[in-house]
Amino acid sequence: MFSTIVADKEAEFERDMIQGMPNHRGESGPVVIQSDRLRMLLERLISFEKYILYQDYATQKEPEFTYNPGIVPILISAPHGAAHTRHGNYKGEDEYTASFAQVISESTGAHCIFSRRKSKTDPNVAKDAPYKEKVRQICTKNEIKFVIDLHGMRSIHEVGIELGTRNGKSCPDQKELILQSLGDSGFTADNDDKLLRTRIDAHFSGLGSHTREPMVKFVSERLQIPAVQIEINACNRIVERKNDAAEKDKSFRGNPALIEQTINAFICITNALHQSFQV
Length: 279
Ligand SMILES: [Zn+2]
Known about the structure:
Blueprint: H1 9-19, H2 36-50, E1 53-57, E2 65-68, E3 72-78, E4 84-86, E5 89-91, H3 97-108, E6 110-115, E7 117-118, H4 130-142, E8 146-153, E9 161-164, H5 175-184, E10 198-200, H6 215-222, E11 227-233, H7 256-278
Parallel strand pairs: 1-7, 3-6, 3-8, 8-11, 9-10
Antiparallel strand pairs: 2-6, 4-5, 9-11
Helix pairs in contact: 1-7, 2-3, 3-7, 5-7
């Protein structure tokens, strides 16, 4: 649906236009969106995110998470799409990760699962989370060959994207391909622009502990399917903050062209992984 070519002149132009904005927040007025393609993507993300109620518990009619079947043996997961509870403590949502999962799966044919209501547990790290049981069922029924687990990190982080690979153990055969796809999409370890910079297993390695079993550990160890955890900077992901967000600064906005570049990088990764499984 969306082009995976990110290095074209139009995208560069959009980026330059928007980089003039202070701190990617749009304080100096409405962001000028230069292309219909970008506008469509942002509207799609906003329309998906509208249906994620961060602070509302599930009801009989409104389930805690949703699974959208795909046709490609890759699963995109966003367990922190809404607020959740870890060891009795409230934790805010990873805004727009549920919408990212849906847009990526629409573009690639991958399966996707995402949290859409607040959880009384932590769907990512709780060992007995119903979300994980659903992931197990999806993986078994569809012979899933790879799981991409999306998360959000704050804008203060000095990178746009961090991969959690459990020190390389969660996806030893795919790590280089993922880094290659990120590089092809403009994301590199030594990029001068911090939001186009990547790092691996630094702050979010997915190692877990005896009380925390992150999705990337659950999938790669218990299900024996390779997986990667991807943390996305708020600037690379939040189109416009919703009123029910846990974060106080409701005026925060990410950079539109950067959001598109980030989505395209994930589409590129998913397509490259799919291709590698067909050889
Ligand atoms: Zn998270």
